[in-house]
């Protein structure tokens, strides 16, 4: 599988997949986001990325295209995102989810208290307003 960084001009395809999956799209073009398109020989597999620049970052917008789900591709995509974030200086990844807690727990993410969120995470729009307060808050140390 190949991961390609996508720029602002390629966000429309990402937004289409996220909307189909019921995920947030309103802030995709905001600064400090790094998204990837994942492809294999059969075509686009999915998208995902991170938000932030410091040691603490958010996993954002991880989605496998509908016709490729159930093949273990999400785990490979997440591993690639984690490697890219670690290579770029991240030490911990956080995420908010209303639907994929078992998936992330199976990949080493643990429940975190929202009150304990680092400032860089707590100040993000995703944390403050875009994800509901009922979303599960998870964390994983990657470096």
TrEMBL record:
Entry annotated with the keyword Ribonucleoprotein: no
Signal sequence, start to end: none
Keywords from the named record: Acyltransferase, Transferase
CDD domains: NAT_SF (cd04301)
Superkingdom of origin organism: Bacteria
A Pfam family that the UniProt record links to this protein: Acetyltransf_7
Domain N-acetyltransferase: 1-134
PROSITE patterns: GNAT
InterPro entries registered for this protein in UniProt: Acyl_CoA_acyltransferase, Bact_Acetyltransf, GNAT_dom
Name of the protein this chain belongs to: Arsenic resistance N-acetyltransferase ArsN2
Gene field: arsN2
